[in-house]
Design a protein that fits this description.
This protein is of the alpha+beta class and 501 residues long. Among the domains are: 1-13 and 120-174 and 176-222, no CATH class; 253-324, no CATH class; 421-500, no CATH class. The protein contains 19 helices and 12 strands. The strands form 4 sheets. Strands 6-5-4-9-8 form a 5-stranded antiparallel beta sheet, with helices on one face. The chain has a 3-stranded antiparallel beta sheet with strand order 3-2-7. Strands 1-12 form a two-stranded antiparallel sheet. Strand 4 and strand 5 (153-159) form a beta hairpin. Helix 3 packs across helix 9, helix 4 runs antiparallel to helix 7 (104-118) and helix 4 (57-76) crosses helix 15 (371-398).
């Protein structure tokens, strides 16, 4: 892609971002009944919430639920690749030596929290020709990256809404991708770029079809926490309110009502009396504003040992009564119950077993009952496999050797308990699918034995149905004529198995 094509694409992106940021009608922005811009606060832009909640203890606990088994896989993986193509096999030792020099195990472990929370791995790959050395460089906020595709193929990345990074210089993998912008052929203003796109598509593109054909797409990473941002913020807000309600309930001052009888019934006189009593009662109660811990402790001790106050008593003139205030325990209990329900919802949506989060029960036994959790872990493993493969592709392309991700053989499968559990789950699914197929075979045999159907047509239709639904060994069925001949032969294997059934 030349400089004109790059600049045009970047200008389109900058223009769109600027238009999205402008608020032309502030009243409509606020008072839109929840259908317009106000939804951006939580639903359409959860990144702001994720930025705010990053580092929260509860969030870290959820991240650790995914990171713990992943660390075992990462630490036991041997970061060596192989190639199927003969002309690439001679570079295996060179590539593996470069991977070892990058200290991938350490870098991947360091990136786990960000990759889980934000759903992305992104680093710059730089090459020093003089020393023949590659470097994986960390970036601030790696999730602030846009993947740019041209006609469905990645060509690079955009940072800070303007800086374009060629695909060779970036190592990128995402848990999921969310489309941020799509540019059709008809939307391309630059004539030369538009003609080049049309030429790449074959040269004969009707103008009526151009608005429907996507030339460029901009995708942003989307993590497993992305859809839970609103609930996570509500949990944080509830915890925040609970803490301050408890603090308020603990340090709340007593409130007294004062009845003034002896003075003239004027508001000024009553205010003076109540103010004088407040000053006496509140002496030494300002220690909470102290910022220095040692000073605050001194003030607390002073208040504890000097908590007696002497008030004059004027009989038959005034009365001071303690005012009863509603207890806040009910509000706190209601908020606590609501928060517990929200946390269960978040755990369910993320696929984290509740027993695993609370630390009760056997870890691997719990995992065996949670397909959703294992699926999420497997997606993270696949993401890091793409990281390694893409890294290898970039290294070879920097050296002038063409290679694709499909040419690289690398897997993070190892002997960890989690991988063993994944294998057992896959075996169980295969066994269940084979059981369904055997049931179907027996039902077909009963239909053929009834004499009402053409046996050859039944076998043809049955084989097509098996292959259509992609059941196990669907492409391994024998020729229909051979099966029919065996069915007529009393000594055939088919009839022997039929007798056993």
């Amino acid at each position: 892609m030349d400089i004109y094509e790059t600049s045009s694409m970047l200008m389109n992106t900058m223009s769109t971002d600027l238009n999205n940021a402008l608020i032309t009608d502030p009243y409509n922005y606020i008072l839109d009944n929840g259908y317009g811009q106000t939804s951006n606060l939580f639903q359409n832009d959860p990144d702001k919430i994720l930025d705010f909640l990053e580092g929260n203890d509860y969030i870290q606990g959820l991240i650790d639920s995914f990171a713990s088994p992943l660390r075992e896989i990462v630490s036991k993986t041997e970061y060596k690749v192989k190639f199927d193509l003969n002309y690439l096999q001679k570079y295996e030792d060179y590539v593996n030596n470069k991977l070892e020099s990058l200290d991938l195990q350490e870098k991947i472990q360091e990136s786990l929290n960000t990759a889980i929370y934000r759903g992305v791995f992104f680093k710059l790959l730089t090459y020093n020709k003089e020393t023949n050395t590659f470097y994986l460089t960390d970036l601030t906020k790696p999730w602030k990256v846009v993947l740019v595709k041209r006609l469905g193929k990645p060509i690079g990345y955009i940072r800070r809404n303007s800086h374009f990074i060629d695909s060779l210089k970036g190592v990128f993998a995402a848990f999921k991708l969310k489309n941020r912008k799509s540019v059709s052929v008809s939307e391309i203003k630059n004539v030369s770029i538009k003609n080049r796109i049309i030429r790449d598509l074959g040269g004969n593109i009707d103008e009526k079809d151009q608005p429907d054909i996507l030339a460029y797409t901009h995708d942003v990473p989307k993590g497993i926490f992305h859809g839970q941002a609103q609930k996570l913020f509500q949990i944080y807000l509830n915890d925040f309110i609970l803490q301050f309600l408890a603090l308020k309930d603990s340090i709340r001052q007593d409130i007294f009502t004062v009845t003034v009888n002896s003075l003239t019934k004027k508001t000024v006189n009553t205010a003076k009396v109540t103010q004088a009593i407040e000053e006496v009662l509140n002496q030494g109660s300002n220690f909470l504003v102290q910022q220095d811990p040692q000073t605050m402790l001194t003030q607390v001790i002073w208040a504890m040992f000097n908590n007696a106050r002497v008030l004059p008593c004027v009989e038959n003139y005034s009365q001071i009564t303690n005012l009863d205030i509603p207890n806040l325990k009910e509000k706190r209990a209601q908020l606590q119950a609501e928060n517990e329900d929200l946390k269960r919802q978040v755990l369910s949506n993320l696929g984290i077993p509740e027993e695993l989060q609370t630390g009760t029960g056997n870890r691997w036994e719990i995992l065996s009952r949670s397909d959703k959790y294992l699926t999420a872990i497997n997606l993270f493993v696949s993401m890091y496999e793409i990281v390694i493969k893409q890294l290898v592709v970039s290294i070879l392309l920097q050296m002038g050797r063409y290679c694709t991700i499909n040419d690289v053989k690398f897997s993070m499968l190892n002997d960890t308990p989690l991988q063993s559990q994944m294998a057992r789950n896959k075996t169980a699914l295969l066994t269940e699918s084979m059981r369904d197929e055997l049931v179907a075979i027996n039902e077909v045999k009963m239909m053929m034995g009834s004499g009402y159907l053409d046996t050859e047509k039944v076998l043809k239709e049955f084989t097509a149905q098996i292959q259509r639904f992609n059941l196990p060994f669907s492409t391994c069925y024998r020729d229909i004529n051979d099966i029919l001949n065996d069915m007529n032969d009393p000594n055939s294997i088919v009839n022997q198995y039929s007798d056993i059934g």
